[in-house]
Amino acid sequence: MKFATLASASLGALCASSVVAAIDPLTIKGSKWFNSKTGEQFYFKGIAYQPRTGLSGNPDPLADMVGCKRDVAVFKDLGINSIRVYDVDYTKSHDECMKLLEDAGIYLLLDMPSPQYSINRAEPHWDHDTMSHWQAKVDAFAKYPNLVAWIAGNEVANDVETTPSAAFVKAAIRDMKAYLKTKKLTTPVGYADNDDPKIRMNLINFFNCGDEGSRADFYGINTYRWCGDETNFKTSGYEDITKNMTSYTIPSLLTEYGCNLVRPRTFSEVKSLYGTDMGNIFSGGILYEYTEEDNEYGVVKVSFGDSKVEKNSDYDNFKKVLAAVKPQGVKMDSYKASGKDSVCPAASSVWHVKSDVLPPTPSQARCQCMIDSLGCTFKSDKLSTDEGKLVGEVVGNICGATSCDEISVDTAKGMYGDFSACSSLQRSAWAVNKNYENQNGAVCEAGDVETKTVSSPKQDDIKECLNKKDDNGTAGKPSDSSSGSSQDDDKNSSSGSNSKDEDSSDENDSDENDSDDSGSDEDIDEDSDTSSGASAVTAQLSAAVAAALLLAF
């Protein structure tokens, strides 16, 4: 049974502080959220909050006090109890805004990724740089009692071809849960999918299978199926979505909803979400979104630095339907968790992941040790975009002629090289050195990118690097990364970008056979011909490394 109090501050901080939180902590028990003080079941009545009008770059709404004071008053009038924020600058102070939200009884669901540090669905990777930025965000927000949940990915895998990215998101969940544990934090970490009919059941099962240390603590669904009053619980596909989650053992909620194909929106789905249709399965939802932007999903118009708020008819409609719903949950004491953990989906033509093996935990020490062992490497530890392109081509040629399995990944076979979690530059240096060794030290080169030879490397034996601790302080061989094997089973453990600004799922897509989505008659042949002496992914390293270097530089 899963029963965890969601403390957003460390035990030490709680003991040291005499300040009484103005908001009750929430608790997960089985597939439901509860108010730990009252024992009442908790339903999220939330809205996505990422104002962008009048601001260049990536906005941080929780550091903008003009906007925060303006909007918290509106939140109270609207009747919401939670907001989802996609991106913040963790170096800024958020104390004042978070206190205003706390005093208003508003919880925060915060995405761990940022546009600069996220898992790219086309070229997925999980390394020290990304993990360290997520850790810094955790450190900055851990002290706030109204931080109720982290979201480790938003619609990362959004079609069959991008399913490999799910393995990296789950590895990130494993590692961030372990990091939270080292800080004596139990804030839950979840995932938000895009409700794609071809992959959704595989995603739903994947993030709830394996051991406790690697599973998501809750599951979110971004869905835009219910469009206008002509749609209902059945024809919208909401009935199918609900059936999919009936026996789920962790909480589920709609992390985005609110189709805008028919405006003004009347939000007739709210009655089903909080009523008898879905209220026993889902823990409420987050409406997309608060501010009217170019994508036309907002309920108000605001601009950065301006205290003025212009409400539209969507605002009035949402306020009215939200006030009308009175979800009848269960009491925590009388609720008995049930259901079984999901079965991990098998690799197939529509699921390119060997689900019981995850990418390794990043290790700055292991990767630096590897670099210290090389006899041929780059002169500079930073490359320009043009140099990144050149290195991508060079590495592609090298790995087309020799095995680069140590830096390569094949998610469908569960193959993760010992140094596959190193940075793009570090993996490229490994490949350049491999070519150098294959030529018995005759040539140290990487096209037109400057290299250097090291006559006496600091590290004599690269194999010793595998014993270096990972970034969570655990020692061990990185390839032993089964689904959570590097973490202890913890029974008390409790993206992303603004998705409608990117490509998203078909807003009115429905599938009458959701329960069959994960099935496939065409399993991947693990003995199929991939390349001579290298994995299929290794053979394609030219494009992969070039793309990764472009992202890094």
Task: Describe this entry's structure for a reader.
The protein is α/β, with parallel strands linked by helices. Helix content is 27%, strand content 13%. The chain has 14 helices and 17 strands. The chain is elongated and about 75 Å long. Mean pLDDT is 86; it is low at 1-19, 483-499 and 501-542.
Identify the notable features of this structure and list them briefly.
eight-stranded parallel barrel, three-stranded antiparallel β-sheet, disordered N terminus, elongated, 553 residues
Strand content: 5-15%
Biggest sheet record: 8 strands, parallel, barrel
Strand arrangement, major sheet:
4-5-6-7-8-9-10-11
- The low-pLDDT segments are 1-19, 483-499, 501-542
Summarize the structure.
With 553 residues, this protein is of the alpha/beta class. The chain contains 14 helices and 17 strands. Helix 2 (65-78) packs parallel to helix 3 (95-103) and helix 4 crosses helix 5.
How is this fold's topology laid out?
Elements: E1 3-5, H1 11-16, E2 26-29, E3 32-35, E4 44-48, H2 65-78, E5 82-85, H3 95-103, E6 107-111, H4 128-141, E7 147-154, H5 164-182, E8 189-193, H6 200-206, E9 218-223, H7 238-244, E10 252-257, H8 269-274, E11 282-287, E12 300-301, E13 310-311, H9 313-324, H10 364-372, E14 376-378, H11 385-401, E15 409-410, E16 415-416, H12 424-438, E17 451-453, H13 536-539, H14 541-552
Parallel strand pairs: 4-5, 4-11, 5-6, 6-7, 7-8, 8-9, 9-10, 10-11
Antiparallel strand pairs: 1-2, 2-3, 12-13, 14-17, 15-16
